[in-house]
Structures are given as structure tokens and as C-alpha cells.
């Protein structure tokens, strides 16, 4: 039988069925099959074809692309399986081919069948009797069992086994049994191990690896299939290659693969679907232009739509649902979302379906809020239900939680929405016990920002000062900061914190968040309520980001929001005012910050005046213009540009006649120039327009008090309390201070008694204290009222201090000066406690020590320390007040500091400190050159400086200091002269006292030459003594140096001599060492000669045969025993001391014994003595070595002598004198 490849082309797409008496040919080519296969089924019923006919017809229908292809193929195979009408597959029977084809048909039906059936489905309803995916897979498993049962009946067992394994592998892959499917496909390939080219098995393995996300192995298998069959398009391995490339992140290569697959098969729904999905995802890339992104999105949507029409699966339904939501087709969106939910075969896609359903209902409800609120509420409830289903299915889905929280918020359940997002963040950030920390979910930053916004929003029923609201705002700050760092937002990830950023956001979402203007405004709002420099910096950064976003929205500078420009400039302005200016660099930085704020105000004013930012109403524009003009005038003042500030305030007063702040600032500028009348007129004009404005009335009271109109100020503040607000804290405080000043300046009259005066004065002080106390009751944070009580305490105005206790002063009681000083010191101590608490409370409330009133606290503390003679602490407080709060521009602060320096200088008798006092007074005069009292103080200090130095002994002053003091006193005399001749009617000093001071100074300076001469002589004498001492020390130093050099020279000479001797000795040692070596060689030769002679004598004795024990002449004597013998003596050590023992004599000797012969050791000594002349140098240089060498040499000589006879028990013979001489000869 010919194979398909050998048949002509017309035979490949046709099938012949044999009937009784005839044959029918069916054309199976493209477009030849009808949608209804009834005729073919009738034909097959009449005939008895083989199973191959049924499988070919079913396969032809499956590949025909007809809408009813799957249903008709199923009918054909069931006919071959002999399934009765209305029966089930359990009733059928057939061979391997039929069961295998039926399994394939069921798998194809399961691919598009719904996974679940929603009970309350709205739009995507199914036909009655539609089988679910799991049911179809169950029937497919029955077919596989049928195949297994009929394998033994197959004509070709090998081919049947391949078919069975392939069908089983496909079924296992569809049911997500990946490892089993991989084993089944491997079994197919093992049946033909030589080639292993079964394309279906290779494609199945590739898909299993793809589903297991092993993209590298999967793409290799797909490429192998494409190599084996380049024209294969159903199924198309190019689609698998594209999916693997997409999973590996090679998006361009993936798109190219999809496009190639679509080019080869334009009707492939899979190629259309995946290419469309890829293009839509690429359209979210902000790295390309807007037009290109729009083109990618439209083309991708079009392809997905075409794929959906061909095969409405879950993936295409999910993507089309997003585009439908944008177009507002709500019912169609619901249908697509329900299709996604019912057909999804994995959890992520199912969650996406529920999210899409929630989004459709949410947006649908939002569109009906105004037109039909009841229906909108019902649809919003459905949105909440859908999002809740998504959350229940995936507890870590960020998008589902965000949608649920948004729906709950729209339903008015704000607390529930907050709880939803809280649970998400806790779940995503907290690891389970025994497990690693969970991975960061995508878009979790969006949920964090959403929760922060909910926390920052004031909830109903909570006051602005409630602790719960403050806690929520604090949590909102933390959440914004965390999300900002994670999302890479510049104010949080840049120079402020320095944290590295790792974001899970896509580029599109990240850019969308960073361009949310309302979010930046909310961040600025919650940080603005927090004190401190860090909060101010965060507020400014957030406003700058909001300004950046507003600039992106507009086409030019005219479209920028002037409100944001003004707010950013205000924050920069306030930050500049908080800067310290202790150095030149800090002063330049402050000026630069003020200039930047000035530029911002000018820019905002330009936008307003040119009609920019048209969304502002005319009233808002006018109000904003007034605020910007006022801020611009203030920054001109800070920069010292008083003329420009005056012009701005004048323009503002003309622009808004009732803008009293501008008139107050103009009045202050006039006061700086001592134009009190004009300033008074401006303030009265402002009061005429705003008579009930308590702030303006308070400023007017201050003006009257500073101008010296104490009575008018008291009457005006009393009017404010009576007619406007009797509980106004500032008015009460001002009234208390005015009453206190009145009591302090009160003097007894000539007609009144002293007791009544003191009683009346004390009542006035008590009245002032009561007013301060009332102000504190109304506002416990009023620093000025607290300081008023502290001042009353410090000055003991109530007379309450007596012997350290709080007892009232009895009428008529008198106290001594010492007692009064003690009482005042105790009062100032208690006042310091009060001022310290006020300072701490101000720092706690503001976060810094620079709130309004803080400077006055330091000033009052300085006064207390000054009264206690603690001048160092007083200087510290005055310097803090003057530099930090007044920026060295306050004349009272400088003069207080001058007074403290002056008192400290007089106490320490220090000229350097006195110069600091003069410098402070001169700086104050520089600020107010018209103030004559400052000139008087300068002259007084200069005169006192000279007087102080004149009183010091010469050893405590220098000639330079004395000259400087005399020059200063001369300048002071000139000032006193001018002051004493001033003819002005009102002077802040006494003209007579100035004249007396001048005369006193003249008398004092007459002695200046005498003091200079005395100081010059003293210093000359001291210099002479010092010169003599220096010369003496120099002489002694030179002598020490000469003695040191002499000793060094002696040591050098001695070292040179010793070195020469050492060299000579070393040369001698080398010579003697060579001689000793020669001597040793001669000794060895002599020993050898002795041994030979000894052997010859023994041989001669043996040949003579002499009797035993007889002594023959010439025979060597036996050696004596060391323990006996005549004259024998040995040396032995006595214990550890090494002493020589007494001689041991022989038993034969009597008392008249003769002296023992000389021991053999003496002969060894003779040998040593002969060598002494040759080795004198060695022994002299190294005595210890000499001793050791002698001992060794003696030992060696004894050993040589003992070797003359091997028997140590025999008595030695007497040595022959000639032999000894011969042995010792050199």
C-alpha cells in the first residue's frame, strides 16, 4: 500500500468509502467540508468502514476551522465507537485509534470549556448541558483507559503504544500533572531511540518545560522541532519559541517569533492572541514616544479582538475587558470579566477575572452616582463582592486589595478600607513562622500610598488635636516615606535620606505616581503640621514636586500654579530666617536663600499680573496677589532693602485699602527712621478700617508702650478688653505688663505716708500678677504671661522673700542691705526655675528654641544671672538672644551683652574682656547712630578702661594695653566734650554729669605719661632681667653642649682604638688557629707511629716464649690499678663542688716510704708548657677558652698514654726518659 507521500496531490485530501455495489469519495480539502456532517454520518452508518476512516474524517473536521468542527468530529468518532444515541462513552467500544481520537476531541473541547459556572452570572450565560472542563477531562481519562485496554488488539503494537502514551501525556499536561506528562512523552521518544523525532512528544516536552518556567530547555526543544519540520504551523513551534523568549525577557525576539508565526498562518488565533498581548504590554513602556506607544496599543488590541472572535478564551477576554472599561461599555465588560472567571484555568487568571469584574462595576457605579444613586449603590455593592472574591482567592494580590479598599471607601466604609490595606501590608511584610520573608508583591507601593492617604485624611468625629488623629497623621508620614523610598521618588530617595531604592513598580506606574500632584500636596500638608527643620525640608520638597507636575501640565510659565510658587518661596523664606549667621559663609547662604525666595515671589507675581493660570477666580487671584506682595515686602526688609519694601507696601495698600498688615509694616519702617508721627498716622488709619481686629489693636498697644505713652496704652488695652474680648490672652498679658511697669515706676508723694505708698504699690504688683495668672489660665502656653510672673519673682516685687521662706513682709519692717541682696539672689534663683521651664515648654511645643518668646526667655535669664553676679552665664544667655534671635541687630540685646562683659571685665580686671564690652557698645551705636545714650556709654566704658588699667600694678598690664586704653580714654574725652555741650532740650543723660566726667577724665589723663613712663621702665627692667637670664641660660647651654661634644669625641677616639685592637687580635687568632691545626696533624701521626711500635714489641715477646708473670727488659709494664699501687694517685670530684680528693697510697708502703714518683699528669703538663709560648695570644684574649682547651688537651694526652697497653689492670712500666723526649719533640 502506498504511503501518503507517494500519493498524488488530489488523493491526499480525499477519502474513499466502499458501499455495497459502489464507492463514494469524500473531498477533505480546505473549504470542502460542510458544517453539518449528517450526510457523512448516514454514509458511514450504511457502510462498514475501518477505524482509520473515522479518525481521518474526525481529524479533517478538527483542522477545517469550521465553527461546528469539534461537535461534528465528536459525532463521527462516537459513531465509530458505536455509542448509542443519547448514550455515554462507557457504552461504546472500539480500537486504539478511535479511543485516542476521542481523547483528543475531548481535550480540544476542554480547552474552550468553562472551568466553573457562576451561580449569579449576569451576562456570560452558557447553553444548557454545557460540560465543564473537569468533566471533559474525566471523559478523556476514560478514553485513555479504553486505549490501554485495546492495545493488545492493535495491528501495530508499537504505533498503538506511541498513540497511547501521547494521548496520556497530553491529558496529564492539561490536568497539570507535569512530571507524569514528562515521563509519558519520554516513553514515546524511547520507543524509537535511534531517531527520537516524534514531533508531538517533543512539543509536549517543550510545553511542560515552559509551564515549569524552565525556558532555556523549552526553547531548545521548540527549536529542535522547527529544525525537524520547518513548515510545521499546526501546532506552531514559533509560538512556543516566542513565549520562551518573553519569559526570558527578550521581548523584541518574542515579538519577532509571533509575527513570523502569524505571517505563515494569518488565521492562527494563537499567534494573533500572543502577538496582541505582547504589543499591548510593550505599549506601557514610557521609554518610547507617545505616538509609538499608542500605535502598539491599538494594533495589539485589534489582534486580540480578532483572536477573541476566533477563540474566546480567558486570556483574550481578560485583555479585551480592559479596553472595554476605557470605552464605557459596562455590560460588555461584565460579560468579558465573567468569561475570564468561568474559563480561567489558573489562579492568577482567575484573580484577574474577579478584579476586572470589580473594576467594571466600580466604574459603572461611579458613572451613575449623580444620575441614579440607588442603582449606583447596588452596582458598587457588586464591585465590593467581586473584589472580595479576588482577595479570598489570592490573599497577596495587591490590585485586589486596592480595588476592594476603593470600593469600600466609595461605599462610605473608610475604616473598613483602612483595615483592608493594613491587613495587606502586614501580610506582605511579615514572614510566616519557619519560613523566609515573602517576596515583595508588585505594586505594593501603590497600596502603601493609598493607605497613607487614608491615614492622612481627617476622619469624621475627630478633633484637630485628638490623639487618635495625630497618631494617624504620624503613621501617614511613615507610610509615605516608606513608599516614597521604595518607589524611588526623588524627595525620599535622594539627598534627604540617602537610601537605595528597589521598586516593584513598572515604569508606567512609577511615572504615574510621581506625577500625582494631589499626592504631593497632601504630603506637604501632613509634614507642615510637624515642627522641626526636617519637616520643613520635606514640606518644601513635596511642594517643589507638585510645582514640577503643574509645569508638566501647562504649556509655559504662564500656566504654572502661582500658589505653589508662592508656597515654595515662603518655605525658603522661613528657612532662611532660621539660619545662624555666626560665620561669613552662613551669612552668604542666608542671603542666597532670601534672594531665591525673592525670585519666587516675583515669579508668582508675574504669573498673576499677566493673567496666567486661568483656573483661578478673580477673587482668589486678588487675595493671592495681596499675599505675594506682602511676602515680597517682607523679604525686601530681611535683605535690608527698605526703600523697595516701602514701595511694595505702598503698592499693596493702594491695591487693597483694608490690608492693615501692609500699613503696620510701613509704620515699622518709619519707626526705624524715627518718624513716629507718620507711623502713628498709619496705625490710626489701619485701626479706622479694622477697629475690631485684636491683632492690630495689640500692635498699636505695643507702639504706644514703646513710644512712652504708658497711660494711653493702658487705656487702649482696657478698651479692648471691655468692648471686644475680655478673654483675649494677648490683651491680658499686655495689660499685666503695663500695670507692672506702672507699679515699678510709682514714686511716693510728699503728702502721702510711706506705709500707704508701699501698700498701694504692692496692690498694683498683685494686680499685675493676677492678670498674668488669668492669661495663663486661658492659655497655659502663653510664654509672655509666664515670663511676667518670672520677672515679678526675680525682682521680688511682692516682697515675699524673707530669710529664705515665702512669708509676707510686715508693715513698716526694715531690712538691711545685705539681707536685701540675699533676698534678691534667692528671688532670681526661683525666677530662673520659672524661665527654664518656659524655655523647655517652648522647645517642646515648637521642636526648636526659636519660637516667639524664646529670645525673651534668654534675655530674662541673662538678667537673673547678672543679678547673681554669674557673669559668664549672663554673657552666654545674652549672646544667644542677640545672635540667634536678633541676628546681632538688637540694640537692647547688644547693650545687655555689653553690660555683662563690662561687669566681668571689672571683676576679673581684664583688658581683653573690656574690649569686648566696647565692641558691643560700638556695634549698637552703628545700628542706631542717633542714640546719644549709646555714645555716653561708650565714653564711660573707655574712661573706665583706662581707670582700671591705671589702678593695676605694672606686672598685671602691658605697655600696649595701656596705650590702647589711653587712646580710648582720649576718644571718650572727645565724646564727653561733645555730649556736655549738646544744647538739645531732651537728652537721655545729664549734661552736668557728662561735663564732670570730662573733667575727671582730664585729671586722670594727666597721669597718663607717668603711668606710661613707669610701665616702660618696668618692662625695660623686666626685659633686662629676662635678657640676662636668657644670656645666662644660653651660656649654660653652650657649656653643656661643649661638655657633651667633648665626651662624644673621647668616646669616638676610644671606639677607634678598640676597633684597631680588635682587628689585630682577630688577625692573630686566625694565625694561631692555622698553627694549632698543623700541630694536631703531627700529634695524629705520632700516635700512629706509637701504635705500630707497640704491636711490633708484642709480636717479639710472643716469639721469645717467656714465662708467665716474668718481667723482661723491654717488655711494657702493666698498668697500675687506679685504686692501688706505689705512688698511684687519681683525681675524683667530691660531690658537686668538684674538689680534688686526697691521694690514695698502696698497702706495701710504710711510714718511711719514699716520695711517689711524679704522676703521669706532670708529663702532660710539660707538654702543655712547651706550647705556652706559641699560644699566649689565644689564652690572653680568651681565658675561658684557654681553660677549656687545656682540659681537653690534658684529657687527650692521658688517653694517648693509656693506649700504650690495652689491659688497664696491669702495672705500667716506667717510662723511658728518652722516649718521653722523643714523644714531645715537635
What characteristics describe this protein?
6 strands, flat, 1226 residues, mainly alpha, two-stranded antiparallel ribbon, disordered N terminus
Descriptive report:
69% of the residues lie in helices and 2% in strands. It is an all-alpha fold and 1226 residues long. The longest helix has 97 residues, at 1008-1104. It starts with 8 loop residues before the first helix and ends with a helix.
Query: Span between N and C termini?
Result: 129 Å
Quaternary structure? single chain
Percent of sequence in beta strands: under 5%
The description of the largest β-sheet is: 2 strands, antiparallel
- The Rg value, from CA coordinates, equals 59 Å
Report mean pLDDT, rounded to a whole number. Answer: 77
pLDDT < 50 stretches: 1-11, 431-440, 494-502, 801-812, 845-852, 1106-1226
Using the alpha-carbon principal axes, give the shape.
Answer: flat
Question: What is the percent of helical residues?
Answer: 55-70%
Number of helices: 50
Helix vs. strand class: mainly alpha
Strand order of the largest sheet: 1-2
Instruction: Compute the number of strand runs.
Output: 6
Amino acid at each position: 500500500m502506498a504511503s501518503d507521500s507517494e500519493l498524488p496531490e488530489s488523493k491526499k485530501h480525499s477519502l474513499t468509502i466502499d458501499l455495497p455495489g459502489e464507492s463514494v469519495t469524500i473531498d477533505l480539502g480546505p473549504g470542502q467540508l460542510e458544517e453539518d456532517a449528517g450526510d457523512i454520518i448516514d454514509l458511514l452508518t450504511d457502510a462498514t468502514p475501518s477505524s482509520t476512516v473515522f479518525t481521518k474524517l474526525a481529524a479533517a473536521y478538527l483542522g477545517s476551522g469550521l465553527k461546528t468542527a469539534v461537535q461534528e468530529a465528536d459525532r463521527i468518532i462516537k459513531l465509530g465507537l458505536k455509542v448509542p444515541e443519547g448514550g455515554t462513552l462507557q457504552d461504546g467500544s472500539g480500537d486504539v485509534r478511535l479511543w485516542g481520537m476521542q481523547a483528543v476531541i475531548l481535550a480540544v473541547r476542554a480547552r474552550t470549556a468553562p472551568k466553573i459556572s457562576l451561580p449569579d452570572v449576569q451576562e456570560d450565560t452558557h447553553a444548557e448541558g454545557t460540560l465543564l472542563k473537569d468533566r471533559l477531562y474525566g471523559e478523556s481519562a476514560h478514553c485513555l483507559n479504553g486505549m490501554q485496554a485495546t492495545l493488545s488488539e492493535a495491528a501495530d503494537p508499537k504505533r498503538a503504544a506511541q498513540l497511547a502514551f501521547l494521548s496520556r501525556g497530553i491529558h496529564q499536561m492539561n490536568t497539570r500533572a507535569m512530571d507524569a506528562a514528562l515521563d509519558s512523552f519520554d516513553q514515546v521518544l524511547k520507543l524509537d531511540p535511534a531517531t527520537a523525532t516524534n514531533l508531538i512528544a517533543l512539543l509536549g516536552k517543550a510545553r511542560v518545560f515552559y509551564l515549569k518556567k524552565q525556558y532555556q530547555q523549552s526553547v531548545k526543544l521548540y527549536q529542535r522541532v522547527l529544525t525537524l519540520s520547518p513548515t510545521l504551523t499546526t501546532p506552531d513551534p514559533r509560538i512556543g519559541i516566542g513565549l520562551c523568549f518573553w519569559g526570558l525577557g527578550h521581548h523584541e525576539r518574542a515579538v519577532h517569533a509571533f509575527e513570523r508565526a502569524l505571517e505563515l498562518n494569518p488565521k492562527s488565533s494563537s499567534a494573533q492572541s500572543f502577538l496582541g498581548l505582547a504589543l499591548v504590554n510593550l505599549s506601557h513602556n514610557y521609554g518610547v514616544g507617545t505616538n509609538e506607544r499608542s500605535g502598539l496599543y491599538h494594533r495589539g488590541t485589534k489582534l486580540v479582538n480578532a483572536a477573541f472572535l476566533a477563540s474566546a478564551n480567558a486570556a483574550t477576554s481578560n485583555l479585551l475587558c480592559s479596553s472595554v472599561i476605557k470605552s464605557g461599555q459596562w455590560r460588555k465588560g461584565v460579560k468579558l470579566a465573567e468569561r475570564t472567571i468561568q474559563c480561567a484555568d489558573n489562579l492568577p487568571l482567575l484573580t484577574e477575572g474577579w478584579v476586572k469584574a470589580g473594576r467594571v462595576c466600580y466604574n459603572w457605579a461611579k458613572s451613575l452616582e449623580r444620575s441614579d444613586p440607588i442603582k449606583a449603590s447596588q452596582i458598587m455593592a457588586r464591585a465590593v463582592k467581586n473584589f472580595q472574591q479576588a482577595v479570598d482567592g489570592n490573599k497577596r494580590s495587591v490590585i485586589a486589595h486596592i480595588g476592594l479598599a476603593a470600593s469600600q471607601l466609595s461605599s462610605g466604609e473608610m475604616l473598613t478600607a483602612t483595615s483592608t490595606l493594613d491587613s495587606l501590608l502586614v501580610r506582605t511584610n511579615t514572614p510566616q513562622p519557619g519560613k523566609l520573608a515573602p517576596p515583595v508583591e508588585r505594586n505594593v507601593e501603590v497600596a502603601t500610598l493609598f493607605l497613607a492617604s487614608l491615614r492622612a485624611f481627617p476622619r469624621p468625629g475627630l478633633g484637630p488635636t485628638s490623639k487618635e488623629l495625630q497618631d494617624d497623621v504620624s503613621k501617614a508620614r511613615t507610610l509615605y516615606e516608606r513608599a516614597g523610598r521604595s518607589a524611588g521618588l526623588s524627595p525620599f530617595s535622594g539627598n534627604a535620606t540617602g537610601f537605595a531604592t528597589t521598586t516593584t513598580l513598572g515604569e508606567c506606574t512609577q511615572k504615574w505616581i510621581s506625577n500625582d500632584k494631589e499626592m504631593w500636596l497632601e504630603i506637604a500638608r501632613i509634614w507642615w503640621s510637624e515642627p522641626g527643620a526636617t519637616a520643613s525640608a520635606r514640606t518644601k520638597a513635596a511642594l517643589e514636586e507638585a510645582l514640577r507636575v503643574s509645569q508638566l501640565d501647562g504649556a509655559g510659565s504662564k500656566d504654572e500654579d502661582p500658589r505653589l510658587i508662592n508656597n515654595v518661596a515662603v518655605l525658603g523664606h522661613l528657612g532662611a530666617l532660621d539660619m545662624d549667621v555666626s560665620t561669613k559663609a552662613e551669612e552668604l547662604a542666608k542671603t542666597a536663600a532670601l534672594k531665591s525666595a525673592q525670585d519666587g515671589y516675583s515669579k508668582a507675581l508675574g504669573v498673576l499680573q499677566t493673567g496666567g493660570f486661568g483656573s483661578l477666580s478673580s477673587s482668589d487671584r486678588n487675595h493671592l496677589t495681596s499675599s505675594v506682595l506682602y511676602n515680597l515686602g517682607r523679604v525686601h526688609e530681611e535683605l535690608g532693602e527698605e526703600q523697595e519694601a516701602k514701595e511694595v507696601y505702598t503698592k499693596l495698600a493702594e491695591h487693597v485699602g483694608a490690608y492693615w498688615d501692609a500699613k503696620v509694616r510701613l509704620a515699622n519702617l518709619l519707626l526705624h527712621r524715627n518718624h513716629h508721627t507718620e507711623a502713628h498716622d498709619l496705625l490710626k488709619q489701619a485701626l479706622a478700617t479694622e477697629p475690631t481686629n485684636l491683632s492690630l489693636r495689640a500692635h498699636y498697644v505695643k507702639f504706644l508702650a514703646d513710644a512712652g505713652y504708658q497711660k494711653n496704652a493702658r487705656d487702649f488695652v482696657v478698651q479692648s478688653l471691655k468692648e471686644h474680648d475680655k478673654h483675649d490672652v494677648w490683651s491680658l498679658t499686655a495689660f499685666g505688663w503695663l500695670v507692672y511697669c506702672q507699679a515699678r515706676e510709682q514714686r511716693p508723694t510728699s503728702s502721702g505716708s510711706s506705709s500707704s505708698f508701699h501698700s498701694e504699690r504692692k496692690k498694683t504688683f498683685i494686680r499685675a500678677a493676677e492678670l498674668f495668672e488669668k492669661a495663663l489660665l486661658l492659655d497655659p502656653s502663653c510664654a509672655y504671661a509666664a515670663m511676667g510672673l518670672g520677672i515679678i519673682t526675680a525682682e521680688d516685687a511682692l516682697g515675699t522673700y524673707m530669710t529664705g521662706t515665702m512669708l509676707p513682709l510686715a508693715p513698716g519692717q526694715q531690712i538691711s542691705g545685705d539681707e536685701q541682696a540675699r533676698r534678691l539672689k534667692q528671688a532670681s534663683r526661683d525666677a530662673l526655675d520659672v524661665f527654664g521651664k518656659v524655655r523647655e515648654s517652648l522647645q517642646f511645643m515648637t521642636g526648636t528654641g526659636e519660637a516667639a518668646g524664646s529670645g525673651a526667655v534668654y534675655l530674662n535669664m541673662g538678667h537673673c544671672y547678672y543679678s547673681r553676679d554669674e557673669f559668664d552665664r549672663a554673657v552666654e544667655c545674652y549672646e544667644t538672644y542677640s545672635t540667634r534671635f536678633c541676628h546681632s541687630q538688637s540694640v537692647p540685646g547688644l547693650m545687655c551683652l555689653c553690660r555683662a562683659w563690662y561687669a566681668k571685665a571689672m571683676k576679673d580686671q581684664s583688658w581683653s574682656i573690656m574690649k569686648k564690652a566696647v565692641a558691643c557698645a560700638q556695634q549698637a551705636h552703628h545700628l542706631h547712630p542717633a542714640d546719644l545714650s549709646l555714645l555716653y556709654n561708650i565714653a564711660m566704658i573707655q574712661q573706665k578702661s583706662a581707670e582700671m588699667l591705671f589702678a593695676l600694678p605694672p606686672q598685671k598690664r602691658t605697655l600696649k594695653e595701656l596705650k590702647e586704653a589711653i587712646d580710648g580714654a582720649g576718644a571718650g574725652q572727645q565724646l564727653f566734650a561733645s555730649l556736655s555741650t549738646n544744647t538739645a532740650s531732651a537728652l537721655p543723660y545729664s549734661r552736668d554729669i557728662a561735663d564732670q566726667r570730662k573733667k575727671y577724665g582730664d585729671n586722670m589723663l594727666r597721669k597718663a605719661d607717668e603711668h606710661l613712663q613707669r610701665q616702660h621702665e618696668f618692662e625695660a627692667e623686666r626685659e633686662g632681667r629676662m635678657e640676662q637670664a636668657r644670656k645666662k641660660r644660653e651660656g649654660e647651654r653652650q657649656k653643656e653642649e661643649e661638655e657633651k661634644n667633648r665626651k662624644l669625641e673621647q668616646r669616638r677616639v676610644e671606639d677607634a682604638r678598640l676597633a684597631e685592637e680588635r682587628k689585630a687580635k682577630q688577625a692573630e687568632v686566625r694565625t694561631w688557629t692555622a698553627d694549632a691545626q698543623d700541630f694536631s696533624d703531627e700529634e695524629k701521626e705520632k700516635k700512629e707511629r706509637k701504635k705500630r711500635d707497640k704491636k711490633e714489641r708484642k709480636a717479639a715477646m710472643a716469639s721469645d716464649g717467656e714465662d708467665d708473670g716474668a718481667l723482661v727488659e723491654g717488655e711494657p709494664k702493666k698498668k697500675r690499678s687506679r685504686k692501688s699501687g706505689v705512688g698511684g694517685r687519681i683525681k675524683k670530684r667530691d660531690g658537686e663542688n668538684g674538689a680534688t680528693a686526697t691521694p690514695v697510697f698502696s698497702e706495701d708502703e710504710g711510714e718511711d716510704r719514699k716520695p711517689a714518683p711524679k704522676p703521669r699528669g706532670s708529663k702532660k703538663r710539660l707538654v702543655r708548657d712547651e706550647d705556652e709560648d706559641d699560644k699566649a695570644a689565644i689564652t690572653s684574649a680568651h681565658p675561658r677558652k684557654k681553660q677549656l682547651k687545656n682540659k681537653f688537651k690534658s684529657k687527650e694526652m692521658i688517653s694517648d698514654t693509656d693506649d700504650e697497653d690495652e689491659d688497664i689492670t696491669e702495672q705500667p712500666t716506667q717510662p723511658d726518659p728518652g722516649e718521653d723526649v722523643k714523644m714531645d719533640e715537635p
